[in-house]
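2024-03-11 09:14:02 DEBUG pipeline.ingest accepted 1 chain
2024-03-11 09:14:02 DEBUG pipeline.ingest length=123
2024-03-11 09:14:03 DEBUG pipeline.predict start
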Amino acid sequence: QVQLVESGGGLVQPGGSLRLSCAASGKIVSINEMGWYRQVPGQERELVANIISDGSAEYADFVKGRFTISRDNAKNTVYLQLASLKPEDTAVYYCRVDAIVMGGVWKIGTVSWGQGTQVTVSS
């Protein structure tokens, strides 16, 4: 009911920067929380950062001061600016959106995940 399209991943050298985007579409009434998670093969998916509708954000300790999450409510889009990247930041990054959508005549709460975008930090 919510479609998410991610973009912005790629290969970057240590110390470099990337910007990830995730655009949500569908019969969206409102979006509460938007977030970014990451996953390395063989490990559990972990929270990187999330942001709620008033702009309040929280970050995992391992990205504080390096990554910045933001959102454009008019575009239903969440961004993650990655800076000072380290090889250990290599992972597939997923966006997650917690939204209220129209399901017929009802409003329904949904949680949706993006398809994932690969971020590789290597020299």
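2024-03-11 09:14:41 DEBUG pipeline.report The chain is about 0% helix and 65% strand.
2024-03-11 09:14:41 DEBUG pipeline.predict end
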